[in-house]
From TrEMBL:
<feature type="domain" description="GUN4-like">
    <location>
        <begin position="97"/>
        <end position="237"/>
    </location>
</feature>
<dbReference type="Pfam" id="PF05419">
    <property type="entry name" value="GUN4"/>
</dbReference>
<feature type="domain" description="GUN4 N-terminal ARM-like repeat">
    <location>
        <begin position="8"/>
        <end position="89"/>
    </location>
</feature>
<keyword id="KW-0934">Plastid</keyword>
<dbReference type="GO" id="GO:0046906">
    <property type="term" value="F:tetrapyrrole binding"/>
</dbReference>
<dbReference type="InterPro" id="IPR016024">
    <property type="entry name" value="ARM-type_fold"/>
</dbReference>
<keyword id="KW-0150">Chloroplast</keyword>
<dbReference type="InterPro" id="IPR008629">
    <property type="entry name" value="GUN4-like"/>
</dbReference>
<dbReference type="InterPro" id="IPR037215">
    <property type="entry name" value="GUN4-like_sf"/>
</dbReference>
<dbReference type="Pfam" id="PF16416">
    <property type="entry name" value="GUN4_N"/>
</dbReference>
<protein>
    <recommendedName>
        <fullName>GUN4-like domain-containing protein</fullName>
    </recommendedName>
</protein>
<dbReference type="InterPro" id="IPR032192">
    <property type="entry name" value="GUN4_N"/>
</dbReference>
Length: 241
């Protein structure tokens, strides 16, 4: 009887990947957790979903894939750990970089939901990209630096944030909210939780470092330096579909 229930849950989970609505994704998250409770038998089924979707069919990774991957990382089963590592040694997001930047550490921090550390590292990585492309040694970005940042690298950083935050965080998420706010910065700050009672939130204690935060809350950018850097990032060709 248990095998029948597990097989049915597995089929239900697979079928829902064809649907894009949030309700279906929430059901997928619930089913994934239930399948995980079956131990090694359930875990191998979850791995097979990731293998089929991401390795065989080359589907675009979404945050349900990310959630399944993170669940599997918690397994104590040696066979599960080995199969997961063999199939996805660098995680489920290809860590592509036009400049040879290693995004492994960012992937690890985001997988573990260490968002404050991941936020700090993101700023370091963006500066490193700018230092290479613009030939400077500054530890901050000018808006004029942004246009030279590689599309591939910005997309890798963004995908890591999205996939490991239930789709809540990332530059492209922030950009959509900014556009939905008619590019009004005050409305945008309010929507993503960067202001409180019309005042800029204080770093770090007044920001939220978990997925209870508003959509678009992370990664952070220094508002005190103005909006030009963030505006340039939102207008970067990385987000042109």
């Amino acid at each position: 009887m248990t095998d029948i229930i597990l097989d049915q849950q597995f089929q239900d989970l697979c079928g829902l990947f064809n649907k894009k609505d949030n309700t279906s994704k929430l059901i997928q998250l619930r089913l994934s957790k239930e399948i995980m409770q079956y131990g090694p038998e359930g875990e191998i089924k979850l791995i097979s979903i990731l293998q089929e979707r991401l390795l065989n069919k080359k589907k675009l990774t979404n945050y349900v894939d990310g959630s399944i991957y993170e669940l599997l990382l918690t397994s104590e089963e040696k066979s599960t750990k080995l199969e997961l590592h063999n199939s996805f040694p660098d995680g489920i997001i290809p860590l592509k970089s036009n400049l040879g930047i290693d995004y492994t550490r960012l992937q690890q921090l985001l997988t573990r939901k260490e968002f404050q550390e991941a936020d700090s590292l993101t700023q370091v990585l963006l500066c490193k990209l700018s230092q290479i492309t613009n030939g400077h040694s500054r530890s901050w970005l000018y808006f004029t630096d942004v246009r030279y940042l590689p599309v591939e690298d910005l997309q890798t950083i963004d995908q890591l944030w999205q996939i490991h935050s239930m789709g809540l965080f990332g530059l492209s998420v922030q950009r959509k909210i900014w556009l939905a706010s008619n590019t009004n910065w005050d409305k945008f700050w309010c929507k993503i939780g960067w202001t409180k009672d019309n005042s800029t939130c204080r770093y770090p204690k007044e920001f939220t470092w978990n997925i209870d935060a508003p959509a678009g809350h992370l990664p952070l950018f220094n508002q005190l330096r103005g909006v030009q850097v963030l505006a340039a990032l939102f207008e970067h060709p990385a987000w042109i579909e």
